[in-house]
Amino acid sequence: MKLFIPNMLANADAGFWFPPQGSTVAEHSDSVYFFILYVCTFFFVLIVSLMVLFMVKYRHRPGVEAEKTSTHNLTLELSWSVIPTLLTIVMFWVGFTGYIDMRTPPSDSYDINVIAKKWSWAFQYPNGWIESELHIPKGENVTLTMASDDVIHSLWVPAFRTKMDVVPGRYTQEWFKATRAGEYPLMCAEYCGQKHSNMISKVVVHETRGDFDKWLQQASDIHKNKSPVEAGEYFYKSRGCIQCHSLDGTPKNGPTFKGLFGSERKFADGSTGVADKNYIRQSILEPQSQVVAGFRPIMPTFKGQLTDQDITAIIAFIEAQK
Amino acid sequence: MATVVDSSDPKSNFPIQYRELNYLNCSSGWKSWFFTLDHKRIGIMYLIGVTCSFFLGGLFAVLLRTELLSPDRVLMGPDSYNQMFTLHGAIMTFLVIIPGVPAAIGNIILPVMLGAKDVAFPRMNLGSFYLWMFGAAFFLAAIVLGGLDTGWTFYTPYSVTTSTAVITALLGVFILGFSSIFTGLNFIVTIHTMRPPGMTWFKMPLFLWALYATALIQILATPVLGITGLLLIVERAFHIGIFDPALGGDPVLFQHFFWFYSHPAVYVMILPAMGVVSEVIAVHSRKHIFGYRFIAYSSIAIAMFGFLVWGHHMFVSGQSRVVAVIFSAITFSVSIPSAIKVFNWLTTMYKGSIRFTTAMCYGLAFIFIFSIGGLTGLFLATLATDVHLHDTYFVVAHFHYVMMGSSLVGLFAAVHHWWPKISGKMFSEFWGRIACLGVFLGFNLTFFPQFLLGTRGMPRRYYTYLEEFQGLHIMSTCGAYLLGLSSALMAGVLIYSVYRGKKAPANPWGGASLEWQCSSPPPHNNFDHPPLAGDPYIMESVVYNEEIGGYVPVECQGDNKQSVTASGDKEA
Ligand code: HEM
Ligand SMILES: [Cu+2]
Q: What superkingdom does the record give (chain B) (predicted)?
């Protein structure tokens, strides 16, 4: 690779043509770009100067007729077919090698899940925390495993020179290794409807893995950052309560949360009770112990998955659903 | 020397151009146009239709560019913006570029260039025109019926779920497809069966080779578009689950189907324009075209390779790496025949006697613009760079350089080159050239900054953008205004010539192909006797004649010129 592209080309004019290089593949991508750019500029200048030269030299002058020249010349024609062919083979090759790197996620990488939907991004970190901005550590391979909730989107970080469609119904992957700390725009490149152009977020590259871990721990320490009701809403959405419990009064697989707090409950075994804090706490930890009449006993237990603090937040959230 | 005599005509004693009877005035009334079987009249109706569509699409373009003057709202909200770029793209591709050169100019010129009376199936020809009108009407209906906001590519599942008029627009595409297929079929049969004595395949003008190659693509690729459109209609109407993943379908399958048509379709757009440029450069340089066979073969090569490269639109769609690599490799093969043509045109100019007529100016502008368009295709064919550039303004710039810059400038060259033949009038060369300069400058100012926008990180189809891009967007918008004004000026110059222009001689530029042998405008049947064809690029076979203000065949210098201009059949 480096054989064809002298290193000095790699960063030439990067500021004029491209945003600063932020990943390991960017350097290669840019150098391929400049290689093609120089070849193209050469041919373009050649074509246009010949054209202008002929325009001036052979412009019509009264009394001077066109000169009869031969109407074909095999050597000439073969040479201008073969030389460009060879050049395109080189272009193909350098593009191909870089592409294979871009499309081969390394095995030792930090995995983040991505859900794209109209018109926002959700990045899910290994500890389950979900955030609409992408945070990554510098100098570490990061692999995104992406899925879409609705239509096709495409995740593009110009500074990283990588892009991959996010296709509903399948997972696609994209990986990079950031080389520079800072913040870069991240956007949707595949047209996805009304607010396509607002589907912009950012990548925050942290200087060290330590910085990143600290950020993640703080961000996901939800009780410090949010009010109990907000934190409860977060658990409601992220832990799957939302799949069975609605907030608008319609029963799904489980009873709705609307107006639940303080109401009278009738259970499958005929007994009754009032939905107070203890009732809700028990429903989360031992759901089978008191199944509401009319519903199947399908709710899983969350024992060990939610701390007491989490449960308190959820109770506050349910209490707020009047 | 024979004077052509038509005994049924009372004025037949006059040499033909004194009779002033031509295809434009041989009959009148709206019926004589709407039910005409004359390929020239049908071509003119296409030309009018294409021009109206062009200005409608152009109006949308100017509004879009105006909206992009600022990241904030200028004229409209995102919904209108999305509908407008969709209609702009769909109208320009399906109603302007695809029928532009082949259906409008091809219809008028192809039979005359062949020395034939008409195309092989005149009724089918009229039929394809009405199908085109019908399809265009569906498009306009889509605008009125709640718009269309999918982009001209109709990608699923977005197109399955949006509430806009997808079905109406797809029916329009479907009908237009038939129009395109019929025109292609007609041209193929005409070229096979109606070449005059003496015109072998390799004595055929290159414009006809280009139309032939185009017609092959039209009949082979368009059915795929039709079927894809139908499948999408069925999907929308009955939720069968072909393309929508929510129903178990595959959205990437749609992209394969779509590009299997639409990539070859870009060659339907560019090949005829290349044919035009081959004619224009040769005639206005007064030189035999260089490398005739290479140009002819390269048209066919482009048509063939064009079917094998559709996957280069899908390098980041999630298709497998192996497939991407194969498509990238084949894609480069398309660039070679295009490069060959550019070098051939340049060599044709060598030692010529170049006249900077308006048509030639457009021809030269074509070479400039097409070089940029073609060369920037290399960045997109290369895998490592396409990943960054795909779906950005770089792609927008690239395809405008080839589609609008080259195909449309090719159409403009064609219109100016054959205008004297079509209308029988000479237009103002001065104003024609001013308009050409405006188109050239406006075009480059509009689209060149977009390459930079793309590499710097501006995705396509964005209603709003990051502040840092505003400067380049403003440049681009100014260019669009200049481009719009210049095209309006061009249309004005041509229309003015119809009323005030000087009468055109049979052969104003000195072309040697057959269409320059009949009078301007041609009589209803083009030629009274099938002309004898020779090499269409021996420019020495005609010389300038002061008195007529045009060119006449060499052998007839000093003879009774009027008779020969009426017919190529000099020995009759
Ligand atoms: C000959 C005339 C050409 C025409 C009319 C043309 C037209 C187009 C159009 C319309 C698109 C955009 C499709 C979209 O909506 O995404 C496009 C993209 C593309 N063109 Fe061309 N093109 C031409 C020449 C070339 C050449 C010579 C090459 C390569 C050597 C090339 C390579 C590409 C590639 C790879 C893409 C896909 C880019 C992407 O989406 O990332 N094109 N072209
Ligand atoms: Cu999106």
A: Bacteria
